[in-house]
Amino acid sequence: MVKEKKKSPDRPDNTAFTQQRLPAWQPILSAGIVIPGFVLIGLAFIGIGVGLFITSRDIQVLEMDYTGTEASSDCNKCAITNTKNCMCSLDFNISTLFKGPVFFYYGLTNYFQNHRRYGVSRDDSQLYGDLTNFKDPSTDCKPYRVDSNGKPIVPCGAVANSMFNDTFKLYQNVNGQRNLVPFDGKGIAWWTDYNVKFRNPSVEPLKNAFNDTVKPLFWTRAVYELDFSDPSNNGFLNQDFLVWMRRAALPNFRKLYRRITEGDYKEGLPAGNYTLEISYNYPVLRFDGRKKVVFSNVSWMGGKNDFLGIAYLVIGSLCVVMSMVMLIVYAKFKFPEDN
Amino acid sequence: MSFFGLDCVTKTERELERKLRANDREYNRSFKYATNAIKTSKYNVLTFLPLNLFEQFQRIANAYFLVLLVLQVIPQISSLSWFTTVVPLIFVLTVTAAKDATDDLNRHRSDKRVNNRKVQVLINRKLRSEKWMDVQVGDIIKLENNQFVTADLLLLSSSEPLNLVYIETAELDGETNLKVRQALPVTGDLGDDIEKLADFNGEVRCEPPNNRLDRFTGTLAFAGQKYALDNEKILLRGCTLRNTEWCFGLVLFAGQETKLMQNCGKSTFKRTSVDRLMNVLVLCIFGFLVCMCTILAIGNYIWEINKGSNFTVFLPREDGNNAGFSAFLTFWSYVIILNTVVPISLYVSVEIIRLGNSFYIDWDRKMYHSHSDTPAEARTTTLNEELGQIKYIFSDKTGTLTQNIMIFNKCSINGKSYGDVYDYTGQRLEISEQKDSVDFSFNPLADPRFVFYDHSLVEAVKLENPEVHAFFRLLALCHTVMAGEKKEGELFYQAQSPDEGALVTAARNFGFVFRSRTPDSISIVEMGKQRSYELLAILDFNNVRKRMSVIVRSPEGKLSLYCKGADTIIYERLHQSCSKLMDVTTEHLNEFAGEGLRTLALAYKDLDEEYFSQWKQRHHEASTALDDRESKLDELYEEIEKDLLLLGATAIEDKLQDGVPQTIEELSKADIKIWVLTGDKQETAENIGYSCNLLREEMNEVFIISGHSSDDVREELRNAQTSMKPNAAENPVILSEEAGEGVKLIKDEVVNGEYGLVINGHSLAFALERSMELDFLRTACMCKSVICCRVTPLQKAQVVELVKRYKRAVTLAIGDGANDVSMIKAAHIGVGISGQEGMQAVLSSDYSFAQFRFLQRLLLVHGRWSYLRMCKFLRYFFYKNFTFTFVHFWFAFFCGFSAQTVYDEWFITLYNLMYTALPVLGMSLFDQDVNDVWSFQHPQLYVPGQLNLYFSKKAFFKCAIHSCYSSLVLFFIPYAALHDTVRDDGKDMADYQSFALLTQTCLLFAVSIQLGLEMSYWTAVNTFFVLGSLVMYFVVTFTMYSNGMFLLLPSAFPFIGSARNSLNQPNVWLTIVLTSILCVLPVVTYRFLLIQLCPTINDKVMFKVRQAKATPPPPPRRARIRRSSTRRSGYAFSHAQGYGDLVTSGRFLRRPAISLSSGFSQVGRAATGFSPMGRSAGYSPTGRPQNLKVPDVEVTSLQMYRTITDPSL
Predict the structure, then answer these.
(1) Is the dihedral of CA B241, B244, B245, B250 positive or negative?
(2) How far apart are CA A292 and CA A297, in angstroms?
(3) Is B993 exposed, middle or buried (0-12, 13-18, 19+ CB in 10 A)?
(4) Which protein family is it in (chain B) (predicted)?
(5) Cα separation of B734 and B781, whole Å?
(6) Alpha helices (runs of H) in B1094-1208, residue ranges in sequence order
């Protein structure tokens, strides 16, 4: 009786979408997928893990603490007296060639660069060379926004204020003679930091931009005269400053100080005795911090890190074991086929 | 008019008695009664914003985010920028406000439409057309045929004899038959004389406004006399005047004070059980949040004491901030950071998902009824997932299970059964629409809509078989139907009950056309010959007699008594000579009853003239007797209705809607209990119970509770319990006190065998009393199906409330009439049958569609999917946000509890809005474990929803554990991988920004893969959403960290370059892979083992689907369900009491008639314009055109007011 009447506007459209008939892929966790999947993942992980482990094993790392809490340490004198420009040295020995390029890091522990109040205490606009923020730094910088006279601090904020200021010189002792190992301090900061994020105000000479401002309270030198040897390495574009300003994620961290890429040491640090001369300025004892220096070389996967390789190996093996367990369970308690 | 949209009417002391005087506005105004204007809207232009915001902030979530916002503005606390909260909050508030505004606009419109209706009011001695809203208490108004009653009126006079009016009350109580109201003679005399009416100054004292539809008490003082007023003289707003040319009424209650409006009540805001669970969980989460923040604050305190105090060289404290104060600030800072455990986007997403799933319902072609052009409609968009958890269905009968159409289906005449069609081999054929039906063209007066398939009956008529003729003659004579004839030969009948109409129509088509009646005669056309029978008496129908008879004198002068009634009753009164015929007919009756047909036995007897005149004399005496009139009349009737000769039996089909038995069977397979609550009689209800498969012959027992006293009912209930569970009496009702909530719950009890319960309205009243309700509920829940008959609308709601109160179960009520409104509102989900005349049920319902059978699809497909999707969504959403948040918690231990976020602020803002919003929405809009065909095939798939298996406190707890694991992986793997490592060019990589980037990338990968694991239905859209979101993440991240963005706003985008510098490192990617795999592997293992070791029904079906692959099972056979026949009394007559005395008033009327000069010969005229339709006493032999949509139906949210413009109906 019902003839094809003229289509009513109330009649719902017959589309796959409105009728919920969209074509779809309906995967289920069947034994045919899960068990081989586990085996495959397991094998792949073991493969990657072995590769990572071997790579990481070949990376050389030399880490030395120079905090100077122990009386035996040469730096003990600096640590307890807290005199200015205290110099101490650290002797060490390298038994085999430390393959180059060698990277030289300083490390701090128990240091909370990742504290929220510490982290926000900076003014990115100021660091970008915005002169209005020179005169009136962002309130984020509190309590290092202005000095006691109300003069603005540039660069303001806790991060800049607490910049690491120990300096190092490395000598190789060859036959009682000290050869200075040349440090390369160029390009140790991120390219983006150096070229984009930080910028000196375009004022010549740079010093004039800082009129009516004061240097951070802890600093001995103003930011525009951080490096006497290289005038271009001053202001906010000072490499050490840039490295420091990239705050660490965790309370124990290391930061790149110099690279050893030049002269006789291009191929690495040869075996022998070395002396590290430290200008010990940075106080860490108050908060139980440690100061370290680290020599390391890198591979395609970066610095030495055994964790990844081991983790891959463990998880890969677990996958294989689980696939066995699943296979047994599947064979034994096989899904009841009849309903 | 209140300007602010608020009711400025100050609450005066409660009205104790209403006093009013007709035609005296001054006097009536002094009482400050409500005018007839109604207002259902909530806001106006000025109040909208403040009121709406006030309402919105009453929602706990919104208030919470407001508090958060305030916290974020405090610089010492603010650990996140303000925009992370403001953007989502404003979005949510705007969307909700827009929705509320449109809703209210619609209400304004419908109010306006109703208030501006016109009615004739007697003002200053003239009839004037006034708007409804200007009608006042004490006004006299004139109503015309088919008009809606404007307010609650005292009927003064009418155009009909005896000052009767006919009204249809379907909108009020859902009763199907026309009702009669009669004015007091003293006011009836006013007639339509405007002068007299204007002089009428009667004073009414009556009850204050209330919501009792069935009662009214008051007095009318007029001309020094007092008259009692009762419900019989009152016309209530919401009724429709039928079959009455005009009437005058005095307004007693107007507007909000009418009984209809008092009954409307406030529709309560419905929430789903998932909503309620979510609220509990959100509170738990708040508690948990406070715990975490407290732990972190304590951590901060310890850190400040041990380390922070020494670290002040580099990080000095602000003035005067000691460790304690710092911890205090930290607490609030962490409240802000960890707020993502309850993100505002949860609420928005839930609403979007529900909206989307509601649209699917609107769009579903399989729930579209092409016949009435009615699509299904989700009127409430917030209850979808509840549809997947229904445990109890309360269904109306008339119009819901049945079409309210009676069809003359079969008959047995003189021992021969007609109505079935056989093929050559004698096999009974299924009757379908394609079968050629009997051609009635020989009869010009035949009703073209009547369809009959058995040709042998019409042959028998044509062969002038005397029994067949007598049979149809009886049907044409013995009834109280009134006929109308607009044009020559265009007959239409108006019957009190559809059954009677069907019988008379059958007779009409078989050549015995009932043409017209006067109080003392009936004209019929017998096989083309006009004959007039003298109507001597109507021995009317009532519930005790269960039969009616007429005594007529044929044109030839022969006196006969024709009787039809319930077979058991008739059989007792038959002459012995019929015994053989009785046996055969009994067999046929059994067969008919077995098919669920409503049967009547027909008998006649020729009367002796002398005896009759003597009987008539006694009858006259009895009917004028002052005492004991009823029983005297009964005796007389009893005396004359004996030694009858059996003619045969009729079988009327109370036509079920399509697919009702199948739907009920399917739903009961899904473990849904169906209770039928009907206003109909017990026999009818039982009959329908059998025919729609609710009650079955195989059932061990069907208990019938019909006690008339509290003790009887209790006894009957106890007996039923004992026979179902012999030791039931020993252990008292099992109640489990829910800890903390103090809610008593009745557990489901298992009984052996299947039982049914039928309970009568009067017994139900006792059963619902406090002391017995548990007994009743317990008994009812032990039974497979329950039928409550003769229940009032209020009782329907009470039954629903009872189940809601003591059962932790989701209820659904389905109905089509105004009498179902209370139950629809009371149940968790209300479903209205649309596409028919009455709209009130639909208007108060949450879902509506045209056919009962769509319920199956609504629940088993849409409901199940909605529930599944919602649960998956919630589980996943909590997982992804907990994981996101917990990482902060772990990081706190490494950053001095300083409320440092792990991720970039932009990532935090966009995580829920952008990166994970679409994939999870895609899953919750498209996911389906098995398709609809399989859902029907395995109704058991519905059961987990009833048991709340997919999302519960336990599932939530599992989510939290899972998140905890994932967050540990997500924090410590990057931690270990990055710790002390450097880039491949020796530069630093363990800086905060690289770590943040690495962690957030890992997180996004992990949650995306987890989503992939949850999703069982990957459409192209899903794939696009998931991959798109990942791509989007990288695009946005690289953009945010680009030079350009930094140059634009240096302080807003400090992460410049991190992406470029980290994501080119192989160990970063190795870490991402490791983290993602490690997050997912245990889940896969667990699930795989779970499926193998203890598969759920879903797993089994999905497995089966996979095996069956592209070949879905054939749809279940749609066979007509036949049962073995057992004798049941199923006699037709859906009304309780005939109005034979009205038909014949003046002759046997107990009340002496006043003016009956023209008698009822004008009934036909009076009936012009009356359309027998829908729930009125309409009937159609075929049923098709009757229940179709009435054109131009105007609908308001309060009343169903229609303007019928189609005269052809």
Answers:
(1) negative
(2) 16
(3) buried
(4) Belongs to the cation transport ATPase (P-type) (TC 3.A.3) family. Type IV subfamily.
(5) 12
(6) 1097-1108, 1140-1143, 1163-1166
More confidently predicted of B346 and B319: B346
Chain A residues whose CB is inside 8 A of the B991 CB are 246-249
Which two tokens mark A333? 């308690």
- How long a stretch of residues is chain B? 1209
CB contact at 8 A, B601 and B570: yes
DSSP-based three-state secondary structure for B746: strand
User: What's the pLDDT tens digit per position in B608-622?
Assistant: 889 999 998 988 888
CATH class of B402-423+438-655: alpha beta
Domain ranges of chain A: 60-297
Share of chain B above pLDDT 90, in %: 23
Q: Does B1078 touch chain A (CB under 8 A)?
A: yes
Query: Do A299 and A61 touch, CB atoms closer than 8 A?
Result: no
- CATH number for B355-400+657-851 (one of 3.40.50.1000, 3.90.79.10, 1.10.3860.10, 3.90.1150.10): it is 3.40.50.1000
Please give the span between the terminal C-alpha atoms of chain A, in angstroms, as a whole number: 41
* Paired sense of beta strands B179-182 and A98-99, if any: unpaired
Give span(s): CATH 3.40.1110.10, chain B: 402-423+438-655
Q: In the structure, how many helices (H) and strands (E) does chain B have?
A: 41, 36
CATH 2.70.150.10 domain range(s) in chain B: 135-264
pTM summary value: 0.83
> Quick one: closest CA in B to A198, which residue?
B1050
Binding residue positions of B for Mg(2+): 396, 398, 816, 820
Interface A–B counts its CB contacts (< 8 A) at 288
8 A C-beta contact, residue B366 and residue B357: no
Tell me the mean pLDDT in the region A153-167: 90
Dihedral angle computed from the Cα positions of residues B1145, B1147, B1153 and B1155, in that order, rounded to the nearest 10 degrees? 90
The size of chain A, in residues, is: 339
Active site (catalytic) residues of B: 396
Q: Give the model's pLDDT for residue A105.
A: 94
Chain B contact probe: residue of A61, A123, A307, A338 with most B CBs at under 10 A: A307
State CA B1080 to chain mean position distance. 44
Cβ atoms B431, B421 nearer than 8 A = yes
**DSSP assignment of A281-326:** ----GGGT-EEEEEEE--BTTBS--HHHHHHHHHHHHHHHHHHHHH
Pairwise CB contact (< 8 Å): A307 & B976: yes
- Among A11, A25, A29, most B C-beta atoms within 10 A, so best to mutate, is A29
Of A299, A297, A309, the C-alpha closest to A96 is A297
In CATH, which of 3.40.50.1010, 1.10.3720.10, 3.60.15.10, 2.70.150.10 is domain B135-264? 2.70.150.10
- Determine how β-strand A253-260 pairs with β-strand A102-109: antiparallel
Structure tokens at B282: 């959100």
